[in-house]
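Supplementary Methods, section 5.1.

A reviewer requested that the exact input to the structure prediction be made available. We therefore reproduce it here, unchanged from the version used in the analyses.
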Amino acid sequence: MSRTLDIFLDFPQEIEQLVKELEFILAIKFELFSDGTDNWYEFRNSTISLTLGKHDFENDRDIKFEEYPYNLSIRALKISNELDRKKWRYEFASYVLHKLKTTERYRLMLVDDLQVKLEEFAPLVKV
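The structure derived from this sequence is encoded token-by-token as follows.
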């Protein structure tokens, strides 16, 4: 499995509402996928995969996964070397995080490879 950057979101409504909001905020279109057990939403272009779904990660040290019911996972695609993959992941994650922060609607947590918390964000006023 390739390395990911993950943005965890605290959102009190159903995933379908979150999909609509994210599609509008990020100007992308998610597609629904299912493997018979789980459902998730995914956006792909030629270099990036962005998946959205619920998760069942447990808290790990200072990474409070359980406070964020939704997970946006960012993975680089079809890029041959790790430095370029890392660059694409970080640039796209920065874009998504910036767009979500500017709405002031979501508590967010950015995590590298599900191991290292890079950033947390909380809106000034909870909406």
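The beta strands are 5-10, 31-34, 39-44, 48-54, 70-76, 107-112, 116-121. These observations are discussed further in the main text.
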